[in-house]
Amino acid sequence: MFTVEKTCLVVVDVQGKLATIVDDSEVVIDNVAKLVQAMQALEVPILWLEQNPSRLGGTALDIAQHIKGQPIAKMAFSACQEEAFVEAMKESGRTQFIVTGIEAHICVYQTARQLKEQGFEVEVVVDAVSSRTKANKEIGLNKMNALGIYPTSTEMILYELLQRADHPQFKTILQLVK
């Protein structure tokens, strides 16, 4: 079970024009924004990534406006190959990673795979990831699942983190998922 004390959210490359042209982009952007706001309320660390931002642009404003700090720029498809990400991950002290973002079959897949290979618990938020095509998203999700990276949804992971209806942040999370 994922817990507030052990979890870290990884937001992968929801940026520029690509964020607006992936399959079901509005739902993905909305759900990533909900997750970011919920993690802020739960005081769960967020590692925020941007692939080659000088060429691809910054994170979608609907998401970026809710994240504190600065994104980690990367050139590698897997964030685990970027020193700044590795340092931030170690600094977080977390062992459970919730992965969201785009594209599911490239950067999300490679990042989640390498986190799993390093012995971390990893789940991918199915309604908060996408690719340019639905087929590529499904291939990415299937490969992750085969590696033991289990699917979850925005609501499912948030309620798993809350665990109880009397959690101090329950009403905040409830308002986000309504």
Q: Could you explain the architecture of this structure?
A:
This protein has nine helices and six strands. The protein has 178 residues and is α/β, with parallel strands linked by helices. Strand 5, helix 7 (134-146) and strand 6 (150-152) form a beta-alpha-beta unit. The longest helix is centred in the first third of the chain and has 18 residues, at 25-42. It starts with 6 loop residues before the first strand and ends with a helix. The model has no long low-confidence stretch (mean pLDDT 96).
Question: Could you provide a short overview of the structure?
Answer:
This protein is of the alpha/beta class. It is 48% helix and 20% strand.
Low-confidence stretches: none
Category by helix and strand content? alpha/beta
Largest β-sheet summary:
6 strands, parallel
Q: Approximately how much beta-strand content do the residues carry?
A: 15-25%
CA-CA gap between termini: 23 Å
Mean model confidence by pLDDT:
96
User: What's the count of strands?
Assistant: 6
* Share in helix: 40-55%
Describe the secondary-structure layout:
Blueprint (H helix, E strand, L loop, with lengths): L6 E6 L3 H6 L3 H18 L3 E6 L1 H4 L4 H4 L7 E3 L8 H10 L3 E7 L1 H14 L3 E10 L3 H13 L3 E3 L1 H9 L7 H8 L1
Parallel strand pairs: 1-2, 1-4, 2-3, 4-5, 5-6
Helix pairs in contact: 2-9, 6-7
Task: List the main descriptive attributes of the protein structure presented here.
single chain, 178 residues, alpha/beta, six-stranded parallel β-sheet, 9 helices, 6 strands, 48% helix
